[in-house]
Design goal:
The chain is α+β, with helices and mostly antiparallel strands and 384 residues long. The protein folds into 4 domains: 101 residues, Beta Barrel (Thrombin, subunit H), CATH 2.40.10; 91 residues; 86 residues, Elongation Factor Tu (Ef-tu), domain 3 (Beta Barrel); 70 residues, no CATH class. It contains 7 helices and 21 strands. The strands form 5 sheets. Strands 2-1-6-7-8-5-3 form a 7-stranded antiparallel beta sheet, with no helix packed on it. Strands 4, 13, 14, 18, 19, 20 and 21 form a 7-stranded mixed beta sheet that branches. A 3-stranded mixed beta sheet has the order 16-15-17, with helices on one face. The protein is globular. The termini are far apart.
Length: 384
Amino acid sequence: MKNITIRVSKPDGTFITNWDNATFENFTKEINAGLGVCEIKLGEKFDYQGSELKLGNTIEILISDKETLDLPEGYLLVYSGYISMYRPWVKGKKEGITVFVLGHYTKLALDVWKNGTTTTFDYDPKEDVSVMFADLMDRYIAETTNSKLSYTGATIETSGAEGVYLFEMKTYREAIEKIKSMAPANWFWYVDELGLVYFKVKPTTATHTFVFKQHFSEVKVERSMEKIRNAMLFWNGEDAPDDIYKLYEDDASILQFGRRLETYFDYKVGDEATADLIANKFIEEAKVPAVKVVCEIIDNNEDAVNGYDIESIQPGDTCNFKGFDEQFADIFEENMLITKVVYSLNKVILTVEVHKAGLLEWQEQTSRKVEDSYSSGSPTTYTT
C-alpha cells in the first residue's frame, strides 16, 4: 500500500499545512530539464479560500510504502515545486480546484545570468565547461531569493572539454544550454526533486535491469532517420582574418544516409577549438538514426513478485532490457539512457534513447540558425 502526503509551505520554507484530500495523476521528469508540471486535484469546493492557496507557495509530494520503512523519516520526497496557477471550476453538479505546480528548475529561464548588475561573462582564456556551469549556478544561488537549487562537487562532474566563449545577457537556462552544447557527447544536466543540480556524463554501466514479463509486459521501439544530421556548416560571424567558417562532416553517415546538413551561427565563439567542440559533439549525437524505446514499468507495491521500485528510477540513469527471445534481443543495446520518466503512483512510463534523438531540442534551445540577417556578409569559402 502506498500513501501520499502533499505538503504546502511558504516560499521561504515555512510549513503551512498538508493537503489531506488532494490527489494527482502523474508528473514528468526529464533530462536537460527537471520536474515538469504536476496537476493537483485539491479536493475542495469551487469557493475554497484557504490561506495556503497562494501563487508562489511551495509544494512537496511525499510517499510512504514498504520501500521507505527503513528511511529515517519513513517517507520519500518524489516531487517539489511551486504553485504557478490554480483554477477553480464548476461542471454541472461537480466542482473543485485544480492546482498547477512547476518544478523549481523552470525559474532558470526567468532571470538573466548576473553578478549584481553585470550580465557579461567572458571565458577567455579557455575554461572547462563544467567550471562555467558551476560559476553559473553559484550566481543563480547567490542572486535568487529562495532559489531551492544546490549542487556539490559530485553532482557537477569535470568534463575535460575547454571552451572560449562570451556570455552576454543570457538567461540562466539559455547559458546552460550553450554550455551543454560545448560538453562532450552523452553529457546532460538535470534538477531532481531535492533541488540538486547535475551536470554529468551518461553512466558507463546500467543502473537498472528490467525483465520482460516481470517488470514490464509491453514495449514500443521507434527508429527514425528524419533527425539525422551528419554535416554542420559553422560560422562565427566574423570577417577574415578572425572568421571561423568551417564544414564538419561524418563520412560514414553520409555514405549510408546521404548528406544532411545543419547550419549554425554563433558570434560568441572565441576560437576554432570551441567551434570544434560544438560541431563535433552535435554530429556525434545526430549522425545515426534515432532509436527510442517507450516502456511501462509497474510498481512493486502492486505486485511484489513482478514489480519494480519505481521511485528508484531517475532520468539520466541507464538500463538494460532482459528476457526477450533471441530474435528480439539484438534490438536493444546495453546500458541505454533513460531520458524521460512519467511518474504515477503505481507505474512509470519510461522513454529510453538508444541513440539520442535530440535535433529538434538542440535547434530550439542552443542553435542560432543562419537566417538572412545572420548569414549576410559570410565568408565566400569555408575550411575543412
